[in-house]
Amino acid sequence: MSDPQNTQSFETDSELDTSQQLQAGTTLVERYTIQGIIGIGGMSAVYQARDMHFPNVTKNVAVKEMVNRALDPVVRSTIVRNFEREANLLASLEHRAIPRIYDYFTLNERSYLVIEFVSGSDLEELVNNTNEFIEEERLVRWAIELCDVLSYLHNHKPESIIFRDMKPSNVMINAQDHVVLVDFGIAKPFQAGKRGTMIGTEGYSPPEQYRGEASPQADIYALGATLHHAITRRDPRLEPPFSFHERPILQHNPNVSSLLVKVIEKALEYQPEDRFQTAEDMKSALMGVAHETGMLPHIAASLSQAVRVSEAIQPIWSFKCEDEIRGSPVYTNGAVYVGCYDNNLYALDAHDGEFLWKYPTEGGIVSKPAFFDESVYFGSEDHRLHAVYLRNGRVNWTYYTKGPVRSSPFIAEGHIFIGSDDRFLHAVNATTGRPAWRADAGSPVRSTPIIANELVYFGSEAGDFYCLDFTGAIKWRFKAKRAVTSSAVVSKGTVYVGSVDSTIYALDAKTGWVIWRFRLSKPTISTPFMNDNLLFTGSVDGAIYCIDTNTSKEVWRYSTEHQVTGSPIILKDSLYCGSVDGCFYCLEFRTGRLRWKYQTEGPITGTPVAWEDVIAIGSTDHRIYAFAV
Amino acid sequence: MLKKILNILGFQKDEVESSLASGEVPTIPITDEKISAGIQPLAIAKRPNLPQLIAGCAQSVGMMRGHNEDAILVYSALFANQEGYVPVGLFIVADGMGGHKHGEVASNLAVRVVGREVIQKIMLGFMDIHPTPPEEGIQEILESSVMAAHRTITKESPGSGTTLTAILILDKHMSIAHVGDSRAYSLDNQGKLEILTRDHSLVKRMMELGHLTEQEAAIHPQRNVLYRALGQGEPFTPDISTTALPNAGHLLICSDGLWGVVPQDEMVRLIRSTSSPDLACQLLIDAANKAGGPDNISAILVQLPIFSD
Predict the structure, then answer these.
(1) Are A527 and A448 in contact (CB under 8 A)?
(2) Is the ipTM of this complex over 0.90?
(3) Residues B37 and B89 placed together within one structural domain of the fold
(4) Whether residue B18 is found in the same domain as residue B145
(5) Does the CB of A493 have a partner CB in chain B at under 8 Å?
(6) What confidence score (pLDDT) does residue B98 get?
(7) Are residues B11 and B150 in the same domain?
(8) Which of residues 88-117 of B touch A (CB under 8 A)?
(9) Which of A457, A470, A475, A504 to mutate to test the interface with B (most CBs of B within 10 A)?
């Protein structure tokens, strides 16, 4: 989080066996290559590392390592879980003065947090490395920024966050001269084994914190102490506790405006109720100082520049069809295939988006193609299931249903399973195009069937969700209150499926019994995506949801500007999903934080496809876009 | 795979191939009648060993207490017919607290209310002439039954409280409802013990272990989840989770009279020392009493079946 020569207030009584430090060149989780150590102390160390997922650019990150010393296995795993919960909480924070959390993981008795690398110096160093006083204008601007970040934390929902350890060494001043608050209490659980550890730092913490109270006014006191230290150059850790009033600011630094002195003194009142009650109050007092002393114009200009710069992402190629792309592309063997509302299936070179061939049907194509042997299979609103040779786009065979085919094919055991608006689920021999059987679902089948453990699962527009065996006989049927248009996923004996009745269901795969129901505020037709015990899906309510499938609790949600009808996919540690608002979103999949988004010129209704390091999505602006990730 | 299934189903191979190749085959009409007819005739014959849940349990007042405030429920069943079989089980440990005699009232009510609700809403569906799955989800039923127990205790025995750790097994899923600091563990056949619940008294426990001072505990970030118990005034929701039932191995549910006294390695060793879950529970309780038996001790051990499919 700082330059290698900088300190970050790590205790010097190094308990960490130095022989166990990570050596430069070590790569963690095949991703973070250690460059060197930034700081070490107590039970933690911070390394500078390079993120090898970005091979073509140097992306530096800070890796904080914490050693778990608890002997009792339950306490040990509790510490790890607390660490992970804390990491998740921190990852959900979005403020320019808080380093971003990229990743966390635990390897044996060590837990790691991967954080934004902040270059710059901390305030303690700035004070120590010079004999000059810091300019008042700069300090006031930093103080205002610190009030902003405290206000953000104190107003955090659902629970207010008290920082508890405001001090100069935890305030980084970055290369743009803005403050970044570092060293959140992430390491606290790991220090629990050290008896008598005080949370907070002597000299800066207010009296009540020693009684175990933490409040916004405690952070305000510590901010006052931090400013007092910076402006007087007198380190409070070397003085008796709570003795700031014995060191009047003007005695040490006569150039400070009396207005600022008053603000700092008020923050340092012994009784919490005599201090500023909120960080906003303190900020407006500081703004008042800035206004009265005439420094406000400079400060205001500088404050507004403190916006995080995000690199603009651009597609590596795009290809324009003659009508909307509502469905989803697929990839195989160097080519991308996508159906279009201009009735054609397009084959494109995955490398550069060059046109390879197109195959005309007589209806719009929303079906997502699938492959088997030499052919690509897909449905069309011309009522047919088409089998087309991959190499040249010539027809292999077609199979007629009695209604538009909006379902997508699923291929298993040499058979194509696909639904049709003619109310049937069709099982068709992939080689010959001859039907094996069809099952009457009673209403149009637009969901994609899925096959797991020799059972076929699909939903119908009347809200029936079926489980058939391979002969087409019904094993069980579950009734949702409205249509099941989205396709199911099956994982560990459980079927997950969303419905237009605004519910995601977890059903026992063998019996169809409901294990849990998760209520959305609006319908879903998006097919869930599973990653371990996390389920990701979109809803017409405009949000992308992440749900823990064990507990059926929401982990996070990200709101887009319009309906999310396509499905998310995960590649590496990012989730990709389009929205009817026209944007293609890239989120951190653990936290739902936005990484980037790309605005297309029409609603996105389909699902992206990924291959190697490329991800592609179709838009109703007639184009398919490919991005390098 | 088709052939494999058809063999399992007992169909003749060529018969089926002809039906697959015969073009427009008759459609399976979708009616309720057909649902029960979608059967696998040879399922039983293929698997002579029914996958039963074999449960043992033991309880002791301990060496220091005058009366027992723990309550347990062990309910295990197996439904088997031509379609296959479904092992079903409900196992509960409740550890009561709250002064003279009241603790046992709370733990008894908790076990009875949760047991009744779950058996009524889930188990009885199996016994119907036309088996009907419950309207609500299994997790919802568990949660509402725990909340019903909470309300009953608050009304019937104000001031008392109890922990509750329940495992509901339905076929190949297990759902856990948990409040307080009793624990559920799974033990695989390699001897790896994994805790399935999270104590709702972490800070207290860390203090007991000397990892936290009182002062630290008071400002510990987790102090808000200091204590959750049924019958106590604070609003709470039980921890509920559903996961795949481990294939083989054991599940253990116990009160802190066991896990707080007998080291984990010793618990594993005792469980693995015998093939009888009942005997293993006796050994666990003896070990807790030998170590001083400061509290009531309850243990339920379930030996899990090996599913071949």
Answers:
(1) yes
(2) no
(3) no
(4) no
(5) yes
(6) 66
(7) no
(8) none
(9) A470
